[in-house]
Amino acid sequence: MASQRKRGGDPAVTGGTNSEFGYQKPKGHWASRLAPYAPEWVGGLTLWPVAAGAHLWFASAEAMPWASSGLTLLGAGLTGLTYYCSRARAALVRQFATATVGVTAAWTTAATIAGPWQTPLLELWAFGGGGVAVAWSIHKALKRGGDSDEGSSNTTSDLFDKVKLSGVKPGKMEVQPNKVTGPLQLPAGEVDVSDVQKASDKIAAMLGLRKGAVRITENPDDASKATMTVVAEDVLKDPQQWPGPSHPGESILNPVELGVYENAEVVRLWLPGDKSTSRNATHVQVNGMNGSGKSGGFKLAAAEILTRRDAVLIVLDPSKGDQTVQFLQNSAAHLVTDAGGCKKLLKKLPQVITDRASQLGQWGMDQWEPAAYEQHGMPYVVLWIEEASKLLKDVDQFDTIAQEARSAGISLVISQQKSSFRQMSTDVRSQLGAALCFGVKSTEDAGYSLSDETLEAGARPEQWQNRRPGCLYLEGPGIDEELFATPGRTYLHSDEALAVDIAEHTPNAAELEASTAKTLGLPTKSHHENHSSEHNTTEQEGGTVVPLHSPSRTAEPANHDSVETDLEQLDQLEDDDEDDTDENVLALPEPHEPELEVDPDAELPAETNTTALPQPRPSLTEARANLHDWIGRQTTVFGPKDVPTELHGRDRSWSSRELARLAEDGVITPADEAGSYYPHPDDEQHAA
Ligand SMILES: Nc1ncnc2c1ncn2[C@@H]1O[C@H](COP(=O)(O)OP(=O)(O)OP(=O)(O)O)[C@@H](O)[C@H]1O
Questions:
Q1: What is the pLDDT of residues 270-283, one digit of tens each?
Q2: Domain FtsK, which positions (predicted)?
Q3: Which ipTM score applies to this complex?
Q4: For a pocket test of ligand 1, which of 241, 258, 295, 496 has the largest count of ligand atoms closer than 8 A to its C-beta?
Q5: Distance in Å, CA 282 to ligand 1 centroid
């Protein structure tokens, strides 16, 4: 327990400060330099006249026995009290303070009875008292420190005195850019690391810093040690720009990079396990209130996953439809946005897990490793489940699914506002080894996401709520535990920029192996490309949303399994919610409808409003030709927002990508402002 004693009770720390918080104000004048040492000398000198007065006062034979026994009791009580109150101090100080009070009380009692001028009381007072006063002064002089190396420690030591944690001893503080760190030694058995953590905001206030600027992290190997980190400037105020994919064309074994921590380290999330570093594969829970930046985090993670050579991303997003996933329209991601389809896919997962795990076993692998893709074509699968609470309640034994999925090379990412007991069972939660926590509403919500240790170490996602979108804490395998309580912020990005990088990688994107694709009712590569080969006259730009009963599914070869699956799906139709009607429509086989404007891209309602709806959408070739003509008529700088929707029938991100492509091909020239262009090739621009 923390010592809650009053600051004034310890002669070693009283006096000597004349600013509000003492430790900051320099004392130049000799009087103020000597003032801290006055109490022991003044106290010692006044003791003699006090004892003399008491002796004369109690001189009568009747009063003296009462006075002597009263003073003895009082002395013993004060000695015991001193010992108790100094328990949070270093052992030597505690013993010295107790001895000082005990000896002083004994001398005062004896001097009151016999008279302080008697031998040896007079000599004891003169030499013994003087010695005690000198000892206290030396102790104070050393503690206050004239030596500059110790200066910072003593200053910090005083800081702990102020928050009533005097026994806490700071070590040498290490100064880094925007950060000061140093070890703390706690008085073993007297002050707990949680006591210091609770005082961290008070310490920040005393240093004139914002809440959360001081963090105390416990030492996992020694409960009497901790680390104090002080971050002066809040560098997360302004998010950093997305630098592009971190490991394009490399393995998903490399971390997914999402942003930066306040100490400028990169926020890294490892998904697959790695035996060589004893790291486990992990699932992730993503939490954060509305507007806290979850979708932004998803988009960055998606861009990372989709630019790796051996990973497949499947996204289930039953709530926002393709509002969030629009930027993935040209990617290899598998998207399911109807609730019924999402649930069906989840129900098929156990089969996929069993198949993949036994397949990996046959190849001699007890978990997924890059060789599984390189040698056998089995990619790592990241199944990202948005608004998971709406789906998981209908999936039996999801905890078992989660438990088994990791060994089958599948990471589940469960994203929802909060993971309270109503939203997610404790069993499921215990299977999610990583937590990505954005701003939440309350401390309680933070507790559903982050571990107690991280919260005690100073993580406060509730301080952001949704006022600091993108700010996060991340716990997970492979991450240095000191970073668990370090705030970070996702990169600032635009959907267009992400889409461009993803599209660049799409031709090399990993394919879902045939057996998994079949069980889940998904195409192997991407809906976009499969669909394209089956319906090559159908426009593909928006064709990435893959409901389970899509034409691509019906095109799969019929066999015993698929008959069974279809029967099962028919049964399940009764259970499914709001999307049932759509599913029935989509389930009808429509393999050859060359001119039919089937547009599985659900982005259309969002951007192609009333003007576009009654119009047949131009094909990609027509859209590009229209855009080209339109550019030819432009005379000034323009951007994607200036391109009329009816020219192409698509959303603005399409224009954005097309313009970027044309600029790359040298047809138009980028202007100074990002995302805007001159309607001429570069050389003409210079000539003009
Ligand atoms: N790192 C960031 N820096 C600055 N702004 C950001 C960052 N991340 C997201 N934002 C902005 O914050 C707003 C909310 O973000 P986002 O839509 O990702 O939140 P959300 O948690 O998904 O919200 P909801 O659950 O309501 O969809 C958006 O305008 C987004 O552009």
A1: 999 999 999 999 99
A2: 264-447
A3: 0.96
A4: 295
A5: 25
Q: Is the pLDDT of residue 576 over 70?
A: no
In words, the CATH class of domain 148-234 is: alpha beta
Averaged pLDDT score across all residues of the chain: 77
Contact 659, 644 (CB under 8 A): no
Contact between 473 and 212 under an 8 Å Cβ cutoff? The reply is no
141-143-146-148 Cα dihedral, nearest 10 degrees: 170
Low-confidence winner among 57-61, 99-103, 250-254 (lowest mean pLDDT): 57-61
Q: Identify the residue whose C-alpha is closest to ligand 1 atom 6.
A: 469
* CA nearest ligand 1 atom 26, residue: 290
Atom of ligand 1 nearest to the CA of 288: 21
Q: How many residues are present in the chain?
A: 688
3-state secondary structure of 557: coil
pTM summary value: 0.57
Q: What fold is seen in the domain 620-687?
A: Arc Repressor Mutant, subunit A (1.10.10)
What count of other Cβ atoms lies within 10 Å of the Cβ of residue 519? 20
pLDDT confidence of residue 615: 52
What CATH class is the domain 251-508? alpha beta
Backbone angles phi, psi at 248, to 5 degrees: -60, 135
Is 294 marked as a binding-site residue?
yes
**CA nearest neighbour of 412 among 438, 386, 385, 435:** 385
Atom of ligand 1 nearest to the CA of 292: 21
* Cα 428 to averaged position of ligand 1 atoms, centre (Å): 27
User: What average pLDDT score do residues 21-49 get?
Assistant: 73
Distance of CA 250 to the CA centre of its chain: 25
pLDDT in tens, 186-213: 887 788 888 888 888 888 888 888 777 8
Reply yes or no: is the peptide bond before residue 120 cis, omega within 30 of 0: yes
CA dihedral over 292, 319, 422, 436, signed as positive or negative:
negative
Give residue 405 CA to ligand 1 midpoint distance, Å. 29
